[in-house]
Amino acid sequence: MRYSIVTVLCGFVLLAPVQGKAVTAATIDPEATRETGALFYNLRELAKSKLLFGHQDTTAYGVGWSAEEGRSDVKSVTGSYPAVYGWDIGCLGRERNLDGVEFSRQKKLIREAHERGGINTLSWHMSNPVTGRGYLDRRGRANAVPNVIPGGSHHEELKRRLDLFVEFLGELKDKEGRPIPIIFRPWHENNQRRFWWAVRGDGQDFICSTNQLSRLMRMFRNSRCPNSAWKPTCPQRFLMLVAVVINVPLSFTLRSSPLHVIS
Asked: Which CATH number fits domain 8-244: 3.40.50.80, 3.40.50.2300, 3.20.20.80, 3.40.50.720?
């Protein structure tokens, strides 16, 4: 979905420990690639004193332009590309994603972002696997989640889509053929009632993908700030990052960090 507001990555809650001061860090996934470990380490170090600025689809389109080589509204205004590049793979399997960006071009832009030293994040506004309609289709909301988990009537359909995702990731490699690390947040704003995957809308129901993809840093992303007692219901062995989405007007001032370390 197209965003009119710039995304600012205020901070991460990191769930895995850093061991020593090596270039890479230990993660929850023991099979994580070296590149993923390096990204995790850098994020943890940067989070101590830095804020990373991000922008959705920053090199794909902008104000009054689309698909212009090397262009970014952020770069036009500030002179630099953003640190974080956001992308969405809604409509995966078609020629274009839900924002109208060709997937072939999106993969090229992800590679270019990585070459610049940028961080790539992937969200997935997946259409309702039960009804076949969009991600905002609530008619199947009451039974979509139980029907896509193992044993459900549409579990195979979910697996088919995950296979498409694995194929998509397989094409994200740098010039040396190494896999590009990705921060993956599949069920965007999981506690928003308007999405089919938020069964109760309180963040207590969450589908955990167990596909073993060692280049991914899996993110649990709420749309409301947790308190100090909050913990994600998804087993932490599947997670590396926790974040909060705050959709606010540009006049809003963030007075304090909304994030809490949970382990």
From this structure: 3.20.20.80
The tokens describing 226, both together, are 């947790």
Positive or negative torsion for Cα 158, 240, 119, 203: positive
| Structure confidence by residue, pLDDT tens digits, 221-255 | 555 555 544 455 554 554 455 566 655 555 555 55
pLDDT at residue 223, rounded to an integer:
52
pTM of the model: 0.77
Cβ atoms of 32 and 177 within 8 Å: the answer is no
- Measured CA to CA in angstroms, residue 24 lies from 43, 115, 172, 176 at distances of 11, 18, 20, 19
What tokens were used for 96? 């274009």
* Distance of alpha carbon 35 from alpha carbon 123, whole angstroms: 20
Tens of pLDDT, residues 191-227? 677 888 875 544 444 445 444 455 555 555 555 555 5
* Maximum average pLDDT range among 4-8, 133-137, 202-206, 256-260: 133-137
**Residue ranges of domains in the chain:** 8-244
Q: Tell me the pLDDT tens digit for each residue of 32-47.
A: 778 887 888 888 888 8
